[in-house]
Amino acid sequence: PRALEAAFGSIAGAFSPQQVDYSNTAYGKDHWQLSCFMEYEGGVALGKVDLRRGALMRRAAEPTLAACDAVFLRWYDSVHPYLRAKASRSLVRLQSFVTRYRPHADETHLPRHIDGAGVDGSLVLGLP
To answer: Which parts of 51-119 fold into alpha helices (H)?
Structure first.
């Protein structure tokens, strides 16, 4: 919690939401403008996300992302034990983003959706 509180100012200052047009209708409209994307691989908006706009956010959030990687790998190892004694794992983040929800129309939640067939898990972190 303290690390998140310490990082929050930099993360909030780097927040620059991007207009992203999705090809599906799960969002109830064909756009989303609540997230600042740091990484984006293989999703339905591939080629429509400008990662340059998220570069400052990526720098601000890098320690938090690394901590999330470690937490996710510990959890994944606990539910998918190694088959060999000296095996190791690494992960690849497909999408990293910060989303701001507010009590305004179309900004209260992420509508029901599927993360994707190639996704083994997601980690959602609530900032202070």
So the answer is: 55-79
Pick the closest to residue 41 from 94, 78, 82 (CA basis).
94
Query: Going residue by residue through the chain (128 aa), what tens digit of pLDDT does each one get?
Result: 788 889 999 999 999 998 877 665 555 555 678 889 999 887 777 777 889 999 999 999 999 999 999 999 999 999 988 887 778 888 899 889 998 888 887 778 776 666 666 778 888 888 76
Query: Which of 98, 127, 88 is CA-nearest to residue 17?
Result: 98
Sign, CA torsion 75/76/81/84: negative
Tell which residue, 45, 19, 21, has the closest CA to residue 33: 19
Cβ distance 72 to 121 under 8 Å? yes
Task: Give the count of beta carbons closer than 10 Å to the beta carbon of residue 29.
Answer: 10
Q: CA 47 to CA 28: how far, in whole Å? A: 21
Which secondary-structure segment (H or E) carries 95? strand 95-99
